[in-house]
Amino acid sequence: MKRLWLGLVVVLTLFLSACMDNDPPNVDALVYENAKPLSDFSLQDQHGEEVTKQQFIGQWNLVFLGYTSCPDICPMTLAKLNAVYKNLRSEYPLQVWFVSVDPQRDTAAKRKAYIDYFNPDFLAVSGDHKALFPMVRELGLIYAISDSSQPEYAVDHSASIALVDGTGAVRAIFKPEFQQGKVPLVNISQLTDEFKQIADYYSL
Question: Do 75 and 183 meet the contact criterion of CB atoms below 8 Å apart?
Fold first, then answer.
């Protein structure tokens, strides 16, 4: 009877350990238990080639909005994303996307020169607002242009980063840190750690 009891204890311990290992990731990021599938779209990359939803398939994707004239959030976030990419690329299939929401100024050549400064392996895509806006909305991000008739205008956009899985569905949103008097930016260590937890739990 004692052996039977000890056996049951061992089985129960193993069962509880397995359940704990399968708990959803405990992260600050907004994680969708049921990933949100994206509709197809047609944009252009920095080489002038068409980019569609198919580019998401089979890998993890970190998607960030911005524009090349952005004075702070965009260059600082892309530098951080490059560090995150280097932390993760040996363990996970990963593509980083820079989606320019300023197609009027950000030509393919300008996007290429800009993204090459950070990492030429990143995608720098854009398109007209008719194509951009629905995609951005489905990503769970936003942007707005106040007055593009002025020679120098600003573009308001999300500082968050969307995580799209290998089926072309939004799995999570990584939020920046907000500190008074500072530009809202993602934390490299936190994003790397949370990405690993999410990617390991929701494997491709």
Answer: no
